[in-house]
Design a protein that fits this description.
With 493 residues, this protein is α/β, with parallel strands linked by helices. It has helices at 20-26, 42-57, 70-85, 140-146, 170-178, 214-219, 223-228, 233-241, 334-345, 368-374, 395-404, 419-424, 445-456, 469-480, 484-488, and strands spanning 31-36, 62-67, 90-92, 97-99, 105-110, 127-130, 158-163, 185-191, 198-208, 260-261, 271-277, 285-291, 296-299, 305-308, 313-320, 352-355, 380-381, 412-415, 430-431, 434-438. Helices cover 28% and strands 20% of the residues. The termini are far apart. Residues 1-6, 461-465 and 488-493 have low confidence and may be disordered.
Length: 493
Amino acid sequence: MSGIRKPSSKPGQWTPQAGPQAAFVSSPVFEVVYGGARGGGKTDAALGDFAQHARGYGPAARGLLVRRTRVALEPTIARARVIFGSEGAVWNEARSCFSWPSGAILYFRHLDNDADADGYQGHAYSRVYVEELTQFPSPLAVDKLKATLRSAEGAPCGFRATCNPGGAGHNWVKARYIDAGANRVIPETFISPFDGSAIRMTRLFIPARLTDNPALLANDPGYVARLAQSGSAELVRAWLEGDWSVVEGAFFDGWSSRNIIAPFKIPAHWTRVRGFDWGYAAPFSVGWWAVASDPLPLEWRPAGTITLPRGALVRYREWYGGNGRPNQGLRLDAEAVAAGIRERERGEVIARAVADPSIFREDGGPSIGERLRRAGVVFRPADNTRVGQAGALSGWDQMRARIKGVDGAPMLYVFDTCRDFIRTVPVLQHDPMRPEDLDTRAEDHIADETRYVCSSRPMTARAPKTPTRADDAWTREWGRGTSWKTMESWKTL
């Protein structure tokens, strides 16, 4: 295209620091994520990338920079005034954008809700930036923004994002970008819906560490000390080193490697419980739990022994109905799920099975619960109290108490083969509008299923509740086909 030139810089204009920041702004890869430690120079990298893009492509350089909230945008805009001022760009408050004399433009927007991304349909940008990518609970809104990347003038298009460990989207960001490995170009192939040809795209994760920003360390030598006073040793490590195994602001902050154990043969006399959270378009979760009837010494990795306390819950098997993409289900009907449960249990005696009460609601036809029962899998409605009222223990309280345990010994353990529990539950975040609850926009299906089981075996001053004759009668009658309307009137619910 006429007028397009290679990026260059003049005295006083922004230039990247050597290392990851320079790699970020010079990468030809379509999708680049720069993330990790706090203070790693990520915001400067995003703003500097567009400054260079604007130098090279003039009026063809059209950018969109997005953060989750308007308040979060303010420090980015303040920093942009400094970086873009030397480029001759002017801030327009009414349009919330910087405009260059050459015609280049960068818009600043916020997406409070994922649905807000629908408003960008039909827009065209050569650069899209998402700051704090992990603040987006799912990739849906981000993927919609990628559809705006096109340039009729021939400017190279690219998606750029920055992030820290933690946040509601920690899990999907880690799975898509971090787990693939640092500084590796990962190819993805898509099939064109128009001619069936293969389209090759690429993505890259560049890790950020505080030591990659020597300018900050030189200008603010007290920064590290202040970070060290701001949280636990594990959290400070995440901030300083960009450690994605440590989750900032986790809802289950007592979770640790102590809760994960190697598989062992469950004693035949231990009570077994099945939990269930229904999902079709979203994943379902089935978890099989054993209740320790007596203390049990175990070899513990990496070394030493532990003793499972009496009454501890042990998750020994799971079936997560996800298709491998973040928060997307297998779309199996109730009968197929029941068949899968029967196949996995192989004749086990399940003393109690609890599920979300919503599956028993009838809406013009048999409920999910009734269809499961007809297919040979019986559940009873779980206590679905998420947050306690007036000091009462809630399901989340029960789950937290078990994770933390008593006298240093957890009362909830997970076999290390239960990978989806380990992948999704420890990274769940607080609901920003209701901090005592978790953020339901993330993959909370296994957490819900676990909560049902914990509520069925409450940790209280008295011994854990055992099934009563009334409980047995409920299960027997429901299994025989007694209508749900009749069952609803039972006091044992």
